[in-house]
Amino acid sequence: MSYMNEYIEKGYSAYELEVELQKLIHKYNKERNTYLFVFSTANEKRLRENQLDQEDYYTIFDMLNPKKGLSNLDFYLETPGGSGEAAEEIVRFLHNNFSHISFVISGEAKSAGTIMALSGHEIFMTETGSLGPIDAQVPLGRSIVSAYDYLEWVKKKREEAEKNETLNPFDAIMIAQITPGELEGIEHAYKYAQDLVIQWLTEYKFKNWNITEERGISVTEEMKQNRAKQIAETLCNHAKWRLHGRSIKIQDLHYIGLKINQIDDNPRLAELVYRIQTVCRLIFTSTTAYKIYATQDTKLFKHAAPIKQPNTLPPASPPEVIEARINCPQCGKNYTLYMKFIDDPKIDNDFLSKGFLPYPRNDKIRCSCNYEIDLSGMRNEIEMQVGKKIILKPKRGVDYE
Question: What is the mean pLDDT of residues 228-236?
Answer without folding.
Answer: 94
